[in-house]
Amino acid sequence: MRKIALFGTALAFVLTAQWGQAADQPVPDDQLGLSKTSVYDVPDPQVFEYREADPFSGGTLPRAFLDAPPQVPHDIKDMVPITRDNNMCVACHQLPDRVGKRKVKGQPTPLPASHYVDVKANNMHMGRYNCTQCHTPQATVKPLVDNVFGKKPAKK
Q1: Residue 26 falls within a domain, yes or no?
Q2: CA 130 – CA 83 distance, rounded (Å)
Q3: What is the per-residue pLDDT across 54-79, written as a single tens digit (0 to 9) for each?
Q4: Does any domain span residue 95?
Q5: What's the chain's Rg over C-alpha atoms?
Q6: Number of structural domains in the chain
Q7: Interatomic CA distance for residues 80 and 7, integer angstroms
Q8: Is residue 31 in some structural domain?
Q9: In a domain, 13, yes or no
């Protein structure tokens, strides 16, 4: 038992000594984040604009991945903030009679069945009122990181 305690003490001493040496080494300020620039630099944010498409001419945008929430293809600046009592989205998209049917060109995409407590009674689930929590309007911006999701690796 004494050997185990002595071994544990020696191991703790060695680990503490090595950790103490690592703590003495400063980390350069340009190595603290993913951007590899100094944390003291204050970059200017990239200027961007949201799509200014009319709600009935926005079309359908591609999804980022299988079963991703649809992107908002039109301007929403006059529709926010979205609250439980003031939701302009449901004015057009709450179409319970269209749930499960093919989207008709020029008509809004209906809310899916998952957004209702009872589709036949047109009873929307109130936990789903904050549309922009999942559905985002799209802006014209350069991606921070290239997306390689779903792409095949390059041949060597």
Answers
A1: no
A2: 7
A3: 777 767 787 777 888 888 888 888 88
A4: yes
A5: 26
A6: 1
A7: 64
A8: no
A9: no
Which residue bears the tokens 């299988």?
66
Residue-wise pLDDT for 88-105, tens only, equals 888 888 888 888 888 887
Does residue 81 have a cis peptide bond before it, meaning omega lies within 30 degrees of 0?
yes
Q: If you write DSSP's letter for every residue of the chain in order, what string do you get?
A: -HHHHHHHHHHHHHHHHHHHHHHHSPPPGGGSSSS-S-TT--PPPPP--B----TTT---PPPSSTTPPPPB-S--TTT-S--SS--HHHHHH--GGGTTSPPPTTSPPPPPGGGEEETTTTEE-GGG--GGGT--B-B----SS---TTPPPPP-
Print the domain residue range for 107.
88-128
> How far is the C-alpha of 77 from the C-alpha of 103, rounded, in Å?
25
In one-letter notation, the amino acid at residue 126 is M
Q: What is the mean pLDDT of the chain?
A: 79
